[in-house]
Amino acid sequence: MMKTEAYSSLSAATRAVLEQYVEEEFGQVPFVQEREWARPDWVLLAYEGDAIATFCHVVLREVSIDGQTYKVAGINNVITPKAYRGKGYASQVLRQAAPFIFSQLGCAYGLLLCADALLPFYSRLGWYSLSNCTLYYHQPTGEQLYDSNTMLLLPPGQQPIRPQHIHLNGLPW
Ligand SMILES: CC(C)(COP(=O)(O)OP(=O)(O)OC[C@H]1O[C@@H](n2cnc3c(N)ncnc32)[C@H](O)[C@@H]1OP(=O)(O)O)[C@@H](O)C(=O)NCCC(=O)NCCS
């Protein structure tokens, strides 16, 4: 079963479970520890019985892309707890994310930041990576340049864009 929930309407118990998974997966990663991150607006979940089999966060943001502002859905914290991995749950949640962000939220693009290892996984799900594109985001200390992969998801039928400058206009995700 799949569910889409506003992050603010999650029960305290569910939020605690999600925060625990995020901490387990990314709590020890220096890049993550050393930065401040955006709060999610939405969470997409897949369940196996009553248990959370995968979830991902969605951050809504007005992002600058080559000087124009677009409503963007930022995807992050795609996590499948270990017992549920390799069964297609994350792929299922990410496929479900597309109609949600484009039809329901009315976003122009999906945008995620990821390490090299995950490029093939997201590519299989229709995301494409930008080359020669600088991406900046806010931190309490000032602007920071992101130096790994930026991937975009387009609404069905739209031709790929190849921007050179992106500013997230806020904390990263
Ligand atoms: C990445 C992750 C979400 C995949 O979840 P999943 O439900 O097992 O995904 P699916 O079953 O839909 O697809 C599995 C595929 O993901 C890819 N994959 C999973 N982990 C990967 C990794 N560390 N590096 C590269 N590819 C990976 C593989 O292609 C895998 O296919 P395989 O099972 O044939 O090897 C899960 O492994 C996870 O939670 N990892 C830790 C958190 C993380 O890195 N999240 C993504 C970055 S935000």
Automatic annotation (TrEMBL):
Q: Does the keyword Zinc-finger apply?
A: no
Q: Return the Pfam families for the record.
A: Acetyltransf_9
**Known InterPro entries for this protein?**
Acyl_CoA_acyltransferase, GNAT_dom
* Keywords, in A-Z order: Transferase
List the SUPFAM superfamilies hit by this protein, alphabetically.
Acyl-CoA N-acyltransferases (Nat) (SSF55729)
Domain annotation N-acetyltransferase: ranges? 5-152
A GO molecular-function term, please? acyltransferase activity, transferring groups other than amino-acyl groups
- Name the source's superkingdom: Bacteria
Mind telling me what this protein is named? GNAT family N-acetyltransferase
| Organism of this sequence | Pontibacter mangrovi
Query: Taxonomic lineage of this organism?
Result: Bacteria, Pseudomonadati, Bacteroidota, Cytophagia, Cytophagales
